[in-house]
């Protein structure tokens, strides 16, 4: 039972690998910090581990199952794998509008998503404003991230037509409320009816974390998750994430340029240098 990167190699430019024969094992409950100078592949490995980039060589296993198969098993939908244009720099993610092509996290269930169902490895990165569909209210974005089995328990499959869809969205949002995650991460009820541009970066990051956690992942990848937030908010969000990881025996991979944060959060470090 682990998240395993096995002999992973990846290059943006042929012949110039940014990752070469990387091997990493993250056990349930572990919190592993990736360390390396800027531009040495930390963000790239995060995307590979979470399935947003396909490696040139090697494989990612989730509890012994190849990553794409693990997602298909959770969603019940065949996997369609594509590989299009990529970002040109490891440390500057592409805009969300090109997320489906460049491996940037798109909103769960958004139009840009090539696959259906929640990923078994969820990625949270440092730009929450690019992780949500700007045309969807945030409550709807959260509702779309609810796993099918949770939606069914909440009665989200009943009804037909537009009324049935409205009932389904409402039931899914009720399922989110039932998790208690909105309260734990300080999300106000009024925010659910707002669009992404109406909230601050710190408020949107709370939504990113909740949306990742409602997918019930086995592993969470946090790429500079709180770098844009003040120290108090960072501490508050990480305290809850660590507590939930402990409750669920969820493994965490994190990237941070703050040595103090790494010392507090990580159980061990893994160097890509």
Structure description:
The chain is of the alpha/beta class and 273 residues long. It contains ten helices and nine strands. The chain has a five-stranded parallel sheet with strand order 6-7-8-3-9, with helices on both faces. A hairpin with a 2-residue loop joins β4 and β5. α4 crosses α6. The chain is globular.
Key attributes of the depicted protein:
273 residues, five-stranded parallel β-sheet, four-stranded antiparallel β-sheet, 10 helices, 36% helix, globular
Q: Helix tally?
A: 10
Judged by helices, strands and strand pairing, the structural class is alpha/beta
What share of residues is helical? Answer: 25-40%
Please indicate the percent range of residues in DSSP E strands (runs of 2 or more): 15-25%
Low-confidence stretches: 76-104, 106-114, 156-164
Sketch the topology as an H/E string, one letter per element.
EEEHEEHHEHHHHHEHEHE
Straight-line distance between termini: 27 Å
Largest sheet: 5 strands, parallel
Q: What is the arithmetic mean of pLDDT?
A: 82
Number of strands: 9
Shape: globular
Radius of gyration: 18 Å
Main β-sheet, spatial strand arrangement: 6-7-8-3-9
Summarize the structure.
The chain has 273 residues and is α/β, with parallel strands linked by helices.
Describe the SSE topology.
Elements: E1 3-13, E2 16-26, E3 31-35, H1 42-50, E4 57-62, E5 65-66, H2 67-75, H3 99-102, E6 121-125, H4 138-144, H5 148-153, H6 161-179, H7 181-184, H8 201-214, E7 219-223, H9 231-248, E8 251-255, H10 259-265, E9 268-271
Helix pairs in contact: 4-6
